[in-house]
Amino acid sequence: MQENKRGQWGSSFGFLMASIGSAIGLGNLWGFPYKMGSSGGFAFLVIYLILVLLAGIPLMMAEFSLGRKTGTGVGAYAKLSEKYKVIGWMAAFCPFLILSFYAVLAGMTLRYCLGFLVQIVGFDGFSGQGSGFFGFLLYDTKAMVLFLALAMAITMIIVMGGVQGGIEKFSKAVMPALGVILIGIIIFVATQEGAADGYKFMFKPDFTIFADPSSFFGVLKTAAGQMFFSLSLAMGINITFGSYLSKEKNLQKNAVIVPFSDTIFALLAGMMIMPACSAFGVDYGAGPGLLFASMQKVFLDGMGGMVGNVVGFLFYFLVFIAAITSSIALLEVCTASVVDRQLAKGKDPNRKKISLIFAIAIFIVGLPTAMDALGSGGAALKAPFELLGLEAGGAGYAMWNDCWLDFYDMITEGVLMPLGALLMSLLLGWKLPKLVQEECEEGGHTFKFAGYFKVAYRIIIPIIMVIVLYTQIQAFFNL
Ligand code: PFF
Questions:
Q1: Are residues 461 and 213 in contact, defined by beta-carbon separation less than 8 angstroms?
Q2: CA 233, 236, 242: angle at the middle one, nearest 5?
Q3: Distance 99 CA to ligand 1 centre (A)
Q4: By 3-state DSSP, what share of the chain in percent is helix, strand and coil, each rounded to 5?
Q5: How far is the CA of 260 from the centre of ligand 1 (A)?
Q6: Residue 89, number of CB atoms within 10 A of its CB
């Protein structure tokens, strides 16, 4: 039952599950392990955790407050003052671009899921390639585009259902199931020979990657980008979700639970994938294909037979669903930004039409990511480095020109999101220093860490963001 045209959450649990559903996705299962794998393992983990505590939680709190205070999504900034409108536009552009590559990856998980399903009924689901299927799929342009289209279509249909009917119902069922299967697979992988090296890679103190001081900033940049992506920060998601939240809800509690759950899922994903790599001979630094390369080996070569096919199917199915709960959040921000504008102008918005137009546009923008074989070279579409006649690959962490995905990633995670977070922090720290506190204390809740949050918005987050942006600019010009 919707209370008004914008919609409101049916329950706190529903809100929490949808926020967690948006936060937990490919960022945790795909991004976190591969970025940790190519950025020093333990060293990356430590920096990541510190960033979530110092910057992630205050930023999430800021976004929930902004959304609930203004009762709108990315338009929140414009509502505060016309001067701040541009921060809202930056935030709105990120989900658009991110969804374009996110849907490509979601489509790939769907392809793996169907592959295992077909194997259960006795056919070959991986075109005779077995656990080498990843390299094959990347060059199968028709399949890549088809699965991108499917992922976008599924996302769009759910978003068309509106806040409660679609997003909330869907998220509530799926997140707990994903947790259970992850733990089951972690236990299986732990029993495999060679798994211990994977745990060491994650948890044994080792900062050798910082022998070269410049790599510290590279790791920091990668970890910060990962934090934005994984916590769905700086792109209006939490502002939009906060705007659907009623005044008596406890913002601070949610701003801790969501990052906490998200980080647990990232750690679980790492504890599944890193030991799987060491046990099945996959390079930790294999890059964006890590989730596919290592886990498919676990199911085909480790478990094998019918058990491997069934568990493989379930696993990729749940990963796909986790990706979809995030995709719907991404499409929802885009859709809500237009719905709200039209409502403000006194018009009667057509949610379905708006979602459809965005879905088509995002599909088109996503095509380069589906067609460049993630920069493996010689694909249907040239990767940015090929177009520019450059050498492939930066040292360790991804370079913006490696493939279209990394290029889009650089624009969003690398530049717009840190910049948005910088501006938002300065705004809330210096110009509107009471906003977060007042919003948090609505409904009689006490704002427990008010002192820390103030310093975080005024100084800590701005400093971190400036370093991240500086490192990004340096990496960019250092072609
Ligand atoms: N946080 C999601 C993930 O980790 O996969 C991705 C995401 C969802 C990013 C929603 C942004 C967003 F608005």
A1: no
A2: 95
A3: 9
A4: 80, 0, 20
A5: 15
A6: 16
Residue 38: both structure tokens together: 């190519």
Ligand 1 mean position to 319 CA, how many Å?
Answer: 13
| Angstrom distance (rounded) from CA 390 to CA 387 | 8
Q: How far apart are the first and last CA of the chain?
A: 53
440 is written with which tokens?
């948090």
Whether residue 235 has its Cβ less than 6 Å from ligand 1: yes
C-alpha to C-alpha distances, 193 to 51, 188, 204, 291, 315, nearest whole angstrom: 34, 11, 19, 20, 21
* Dist CA 158 CA 171 (whole Å): 11
For atom 11 of ligand 1, the residue with the nearest CA is 232
Ligand 1, atom 12, residue with closest C-alpha: 232
Point out the ligand 1 atom lying closest to the alpha carbon of residue 333.
13
pLDDT per residue rounded down to tens, the chain (479 residues): 333 455 555 566 667 777 787 788 999 999 999 999 989 999 999 999 999 999 999 999 999 999 999 988 788 888 888 899 899 888 889 999 999 999 999 999 999 999 999 999 999 999 999 999 999 999 999 999 999 999 999 999 888 876 555 556 666 677 788 889 999 999 999 999 999 999 999 999 999 888 888 889 889 999 999 999 999 899 888 898 888 888 888 899 989 999 999 999 999 999 999 999 999 999 998 888 899 988 999 999 999 999 999 999 999 998 998 898 889 888 988 888 888 889 889 999 998 999 999 999 999 999 999 999 988 888 999 988 888 877 665 444 457 778 899 899 989 988 999 999 999 999 999 999 999 999 999 878 988 888 999 999 999 999 999 999 998 888 777 65
Look at the block and give the residue holding tokens 């922090």: 425
User: How far does residue 325's CA lie from ligand 1's centre (Å)?
Assistant: 9
Calculate ∠ Cα 101-34-313, nearest 5°: 75
**Model pTM?**
0.90
Residue of 373, 399, 396, 96 lying closest to 388 (CA atoms) = 399
- Residue found by looking up tokens 């955790």 in the block: 49
Could you tell me if the CB of 236 is within 6 A of ligand 1? no
CB contact at 8 A, 369 and 380: no
